[in-house]
Fold this protein.
Amino acid sequence: MATKAYDKSFREEVYQNVDSGEDVKLCMQCGVCGITCPLRGEMTHGPRQLWSLIRAGKREEVMNSPDIMLCTSCYSCKVRCPRGVKVIDVMHGLAHYALEQGIVPRKETAKFGKAFWDSIYKTGRVDETEVPMRYTMMAGPIHGIFNMLEMMDIGRALLAHKRMKFKIGPGLPPSKKIRGMKGLKKMLDKAKSMSPGKEG
Amino acid sequence: MDKNQACYLCKGCGLGEALDFENLEEVLGEAGISEVKTHDALCSPEGVALIQGDVDGGVNAMLIGACSSRVKNDEFNFGSEVIVERASLREQVLYCSEAEYEGEEEAGEDRQMLAADYLRMSAVKLTKSNVPVPFQLELEPETALLVVGGGVAGINAALAGAKTGVQVYLVEKEAALGGFLGKMAKLAPETPPYQELEDTGLTELVAQVEADDKIKVYTGTTVDKTEGAPGNFTITLSGGDSFRCGAIVQATGWLPYEPEKLAEELAYGSNPGIITNVDMEAKAKAGDLGGLNGVAFIQCAGSRDQNHLPYCSAVCCTVSLKQAMMVKEANPEAAVYVIYKDIRTPGQSEEVYREAQRKGVVFIRRDEDYPKISESGGKLAIETMDMTLNDTVEIDELDMVVLATGLKPNNPKVVDAPLVALGMDQEAAKKLAAESKAQCDDWSVLNLQYRQGPNLPTLKYAYPDSHFICFPYETRRTGIYAAGTVRRPMRVSQAVEDATGAALKAIQAAHAAAEGVAVHPRSGDMSFPEFAMQRCTQCKRCTEECPFGAINEDEKANPLPNPTRCRRCGVCMGACPERIISFKNYSVDMIGSMIKSIDVPEEDEEKPRVIVLACENDALPAIDMAARKGHKWSPYIRFIPVRCLGSVNLVWIADALSSGIDGVMLFGCRHGEDYQCHFIKGSELANVRMSKISETLDRLVLESDRVRVEEISFNEVDRVPEIIAEFMETIEEVGPNPYKGF
Amino acid sequence: MTYFLYPGCSLEAGGSHYQVSVEAVAKALGLTLKEIADWNCCGASIHYVGGTELQTKTLNARNLALAQNQGGYDIIAPCSSCYIQMIKTAHEFEEDPKLAEELNQILAEGGLNYTGGVKVRHVLDVLYNDLGVERLAAAVKKPLTGLKVASYYGCQTTRPYGEYDSVENPHTMDEILEALGAEVVPFEHKAKCCGSGIFFTEMETCAPLAGGILGEAEERGADMIVTACPMCQMNLEIYQPRLNKMLGTEYDMPVVFVTQLMALAFGGDFKKDAALDRNIVSAAEVLKKSAA
Ligand code: SF4
Ligand code: SF4
Ligand code: SF4
Ligand code: SF4
Ligand code: SF4
């Protein structure tokens, strides 16, 4: 059997740099989160085992695990963990951390999420029409058109039921910014500089 | 005392409609009680006033035919000078019998006969009962408290005792007080929010002891001899001092499990970096935790292991958490691992677990196999199964591996035989256990001058035996209480609690001895066994079988009872073949006569009679509750409460069978390793005695099926009717007792 | 009673029928709803891809600060995702003084300050606790007699703190629906996840989750699924044809907001008040069944 050696550098890295990463310390390996997760069948490790891998120092396995981005944000784990570990926040923190290092655990969600955040960062809000379009166009113009055609049925239906504003192309006409956008941007920048692993 | 008897029958709770009271009065008259009064609700103020009036007029012994003796005790209490016998017409007649059988008339008759028999038996009992006179010690009773063992439990017991104002003697074998507490560097967090390691507090404790003029401390001293009985112990110390005391707390702690025994499994002794938690504590106390960068703790090192200590030592998880925190405090960068099977942190220790985790201690769950410890490049490495990763993992670069070894009972003579007993073949295990037990008696803390040996009797793993669920600090030596790790592994905070409890119990026992009353479970009972010594054959049965070692022996093997050691179980009375042991209100003759008073119908009437000797502590409450719950059973059953199944004398069975009773059941509590017997050995002895009775029955040409022992616990209410029905079926199959009518 | 209504991004578009019906219900019950001027997005479930935890809390702290400056009314967040993000920040702000200080340092960059105390409420919370089922029942003009509904809360509606209902076995919406006269079928999936924020991007993976919910609703004989979360409504409704293709099923299950049914039961207009014309899987047929 493969022997894995425990190495403390990665867990220290997670405790310090990952949002809510310190919570991993408190896990008592009961397995409730793993069995609770709606996507447990799709995950290779699930939260509990990820925490053990972190403690063991298995950087590669953790950072490349698609699991960290398969979280639906259902909060089941968080409400059930007997140790009060904010499982979901650690999952999100790990995903963010991986993405920042150029690792993309799940391509589609990453693309969509980026478009989403960009919209917030630019306008303060998310335009439910614009973001999916931007997201679909991210694959490049040709793929984008195909993707868009594929989503056409849905778009058309939403449009017909007054649940989408009509727009011709991505970002046209430009979405309205909130009035306090300048301040918000400053705040977000400041918040980023104060986030774990970003200080100094 | 001249007895002035009367009987009161209650017509409340439906009894009035169900029974023929005229007939009952007749029955009582035949039984010699002519003064009979009935009332519609005896327990009402008017009913009680009626009785009280008669008491004031001179009635001093009464039979109350109403509800169970387990209820309405305050209403029917007319002072200790008035004998009250209760016939349970409500629970044992009305509630549990049918009002009518399908399509037949007879039910009323069966019910009436049942009630009549209970009144007959109670009348006999009343006639044969006397008011007990409490036992008085010859010398002025002593209330001083002896505490043996000057560790955390002993010190706290002494302080608690002194606080109540009694004189306390505190005896410690080492040169200074402190015990293991004195060897500890810190305590695991004991107070909210359970984040800081705490001082042991020993200095303050010792200062308190020294400042207390009620406490006399003997250090460097052991107990040479403990003679006497509660209220009148005489203690002789190794230094020659001698004094009397009323009760004793033994708080003599524990022994560390020997790590040498783990040489094979955990490489103990092969490398100075492999140490025990005891060594680790010493290091910490010496301030010697610097320079540690990698430390691993291996939990359950020898504990929960059939080859070593089969039990959980209860404290080693918390101890490792504490020591891990100490390593982290000395060097926050250190990599600290705890390799465990389960982390067992009862109560607030769970908070300590969390705190250790917050400090960054890493926990790895292993399987049953011990991790492999090896040496590489001057450091230690561990290979273990990681249950969460489901893979073998390696932890290297370790400066130290701490084995979380467990606690043993404090008797250096204990061989591990009783400890490994579970893991080996039963015969060999039993033999070893017996050898170990014998060997254990070569060493004693108290050196009791008791016929049954110098030590507190043990049950399993050489820890003192007690009915520990109901009466935690009790031992099988009345007036001697065990506190702290001497009775089972426990944390410091638990030992403190134990010590207080034990000290107060001990003081209570000394007072009970002075007043001549029993301690639990028959607290306040003033009766005690009296021996008609002229007829004693020196058979030794009573001295051997008394579960509490109450009876000593002189050189000629005459029994020497010590009533203040006695718990009034009646086991000796059950044991005595000469039937010369009796209580003022409980005797062989009394129960025998009750049995004989039962009216046994002729064989052709097809109404069998079965008696059930029911233990008052478990069976009787279960029967009462079953009746109250509406369970019904055969009206041919007659219950006779006994103090303990151990008090059942075999002659009663002969009495029953020879008077035509078809079957006898002994109904009591569970015996064996998980016994529930309030008197520890009573139900076990009953079982042993009964197993020998079949011979006698054969001699009488009687089927051994007619006699049976059944176990029940007081909450197994629904089993009562099942057990009875099954026995009745057997009796039916066996057929009528051939001695009927003789 | 005055509240802030925090519409969030989804009520502005994909959940527009939620907003319309919430406003209609509020009007019928005499609640005044105000908008937090210049609110920003809460970050939703997918915030973490681009933002850090502190940035997401910043987004929510800004809204809380604005609400405080503008009158400090309780904030109703009908979208479960908005609710959860906002209440998390509000909660942690009260509990963790260090975080509170950090957030105020950050808010200061935009000239804002928050001192705590603003309450974040879910629509169900306000309906159930501030008004109570008896008042709701009294407002019913056209009871939904005969309508069988699967009351589906989804995962985020009562979480993470269970402030107003059980996180495992919620009941407030069941009682509200019963007050409207509908029959609530037993529904084991009531608090199970549909795929939530990643449904759109992980449809293959999440299809069985949504399929399980639709499947149980159908098995239980529900005429429709009723929800209080725009994400659930969207995921379960507009992708139904796709799910059918992926799972080989033939679901045709209307998924409506609890407030849509309320608007209707309170005597409102199918279109104007209940905005039921905006449901892609039409509920018109099944609603005819009931007296409404
Ligand atoms: S539920 Fe909590 S304690 Fe249990 S394994 Fe998951 S994170 Fe660890
Ligand atoms: S919040 Fe994420 S990780 Fe937690 S149970 Fe739900 S999907 Fe799984
Ligand atoms: S306390 Fe912990 S280490 Fe000690 S025996 Fe029990 S489980 Fe094992
Ligand atoms: S057997 Fe029971 S009654 Fe007899 S002396 Fe011993 S404790 Fe007392
Ligand atoms: S059991 Fe009876 S006969 Fe035997 S020694 Fe004791 S008192 Fe004497």
Remarks:
- Chain A touches chain C through 68 residues (CB under 8 Å).
- The beta strands of chain A are 4-5.
- The CA atoms of residues 31 and 182 of chain A lie 45 Å apart.
- Confidence is low (pLDDT under 50) at residues 167-174 of chain A.
